[in-house]
Amino acid sequence: MNKKQMIKEQKKLKAQRKEVETLFKDDKDVFKVFKIALGVLLFIGLVYVGINIMNGNWKIFTKNNKPTTEIDSKMLIAGTMFNKEEGEYLVLAYDMQDSKQTFYAALVSNYSSTPNLYLLDLSSGFNTNFIADKTVISNDLSKLKFGGATLLLIKGDKITKSYTTENDIVNYFTKK
User: Are residues 83 and 53 in the same domain?
Assistant: First the structure.
């Protein structure tokens, strides 16, 4: 190769190098734009969070946060049905996911007499061991089964009366 050809080759290499540099420079520019966009979004998010905390919409830093669920003291689990300290009380067991649940809820809402009334949700996973096709009334928890809505009068850790049909349950509540 002669000197002229070498100079031409060097010029070509410099031109190619400049092209490669501009390509990488463009990639760096794209990355910079991405960083700026991410920074702007992060800033907007922080401003949004700050405004909501300042306005009191989000009470993150308070110690008086209330629990999200409330425990109903009138709800029972079948396994603890006989553990009440009261002398005499009622237990109404029915499927609270059933179509008749509003009917039983209305009966319960009108009841305000003694003995105290407790509810047992047959649709709860805690009570699946006590569900059967036919109701079996027993003071022994291992033999007790609910086949549908049942009203139990419990006195001294023993079932003294039971009502297993809808009519009997309604009659009991309407007499009171």
Answer: no
Phi/psi of residue 129, each to 5°? Answer: -70, -15
- Between the alpha carbon of residue 111 and those of residues 104, 108, 134, 159, 176, the distances in Å are 11, 5, 27, 20, 8
User: Residues 31-68: pLDDT tens digits?
Assistant: 888 899 999 999 999 999 888 888 877 766 665 555 55
Domain count, the chain: 2
Residue where a domain terminates, one of 21, 36, 65? 65
SS (H, E, C) the chain: CCHHHHHHHHHHHHHHHHHHHHHHHHHHHHHHHHHHHHHHHHHHHHHHHHHHHHCCCCCCCCCCCCCCCCCCCCEECHHHCCCCCCCEEEEEEECCCCCCHHHHHHHHHHCCCCCEEEEEECCCHHHHHHECCCCECCCCCCCCEECCCEEEEEECCEEEEEECCHHHHHHHHHHC
Question: For the whole model, what pTM was predicted?
Answer: 0.57
On whether both 43 and 87 belong to a single domain, the answer is no
Instruction: Please check whether residues 84 and 151 belong to one and the same domain.
Output: yes
φ, ψ dihedrals at 105, nearest 5°: -65, -40
